[in-house]
Design goal:
This protein is α/β, with parallel strands linked by helices. It is built from ten helices and nine strands. It has a seven-stranded mixed β-sheet with strand order 2-1-3-4-8-7-9, with helices on both faces. It has a two-stranded antiparallel ribbon with strand order 5-6. Thiamine diphosphate binds next to helix 4.
Length: 255
């Protein structure tokens, strides 16, 4: 039977036409705050049409249909590699890699380090919630000493499992002048947006690799109520992982 062709485009699903949509993260999750700050940064820089957004596997993949931007889903841990390849193939695009701490500092650590070593002109955003969120709260490279998780029921032992990974400190030490590195927090979305804008600006200016770690909340796997979630973020995570700028292109000035 012949297939009848016509030139009428299929109707766009209603959810694609909306300016806003409901997110799929757990109540109290920090991912939505990081993404809101990123969306505002992209809008304020006027680069929406130029962005290619790469999302890792993990709860971060729930951002796959969050923005009206070209988006690619990568393999777990491979987001920096994919974004680097896309950037090299299409240097006029603004390439953003979005991942969790498991994706960036564990399974994908070689890709993060090698993208930084090559000083790829991409913007890498890593959400640090001290655990593997999507798979049920296993210990991550960022799990705090003594913190209980599904796979460290007696608390992380530094002797047995080592110390938490401090990504911005490590990357700032290895990156050349022109790169941008910062750690923000969902407790201060205004500051986080400023860091994201400066990271994206470094890519726009072509000065170097840009990286922002965002301290974030995961009440589902932390098993915390609102008050305890905030307390852990502000009084434990932010002590282990100081918020601030770690490397700023010289013309940008340190803050
Ligand atoms: C190659 C590969 N290994 C393991 C997994 C299983 N896996 C899926 S999500 C995930 C954890 C994600 O944790 P994280 O990167 O910290 O992101 P979050 O969910 O906390 O945002 C793991 C281990 C996978 N999908 N692919
Ligand atoms: S499991 Fe944690 S990181 Fe994942 S959506 Fe829920 S609160 Fe967010």
């Amino acid at each position: 039977m012949a297939i009848e062709m016509n030139n009428v485009a299929p109707p766009m699903p209603a959810c694609w036409r909306k300016e806003t949509k409901t997110h799929k993260f757990c109540p109290g999750c920090g991912h939505g705050i990081v993404l809101k700050a990123l969306g505002e940064a992209v809008d304020e820089l006027g680069i929406q049409e130029k962005v290619i957004f790469s999302v890792d596997i993990g709860c971060c993949l729930l951002a796959i249909d969050f923005f009206n931007m070209d988006t690619v889903q990568t393999h777990h841990g491979r987001t920096n590699a994919v974004a680097s390849g896309v950037k090299r193939a299409t240097p006029d695009k603004i390439c953003i890699a979005y991942m969790g701490d498991g994706g960036g500092y564990a399974i994908g650590s070689q890709h993060l380090l090698n993208a930084a070593a090559r000083n790829e002109k991409i913007t890498s955003i890593l959400v640090n919630n001290t655990n593997y969120g999507m798979t049920g709260g296993q210990m991550a490279p960022t799990t705090l000493p003594g913190q209980k998780t599904e796979t460290s029921p007696y608390g992380r032992s530094v002797e047995q499992q080592g110390s938490p990974t401090h990504g911005p400190e490590m990357l700032a030490a290895m990156l050349p002048e022109g790169a941008y590195v910062a750690r923000g927090t969902v407790a201060n979305p205004k500051q986080l947006k400023k860091y994201l804008k400066k990271a994206l600006q470094a890519q726009i200016n072509g000065t170097g690799f840009s990286f922002v770690e965002a301290l974030s909340t995961c009440p589902t796997n932390w098993s915390t109520n609102a008050a305890k979630t905030w307390d852990f973020l502000e009084n434990q995570m932010a002590v282990e992982f100081p918020v601030g700028e770690y490397k700023v292109p010289q013309e940008g000035g340190n803050e």
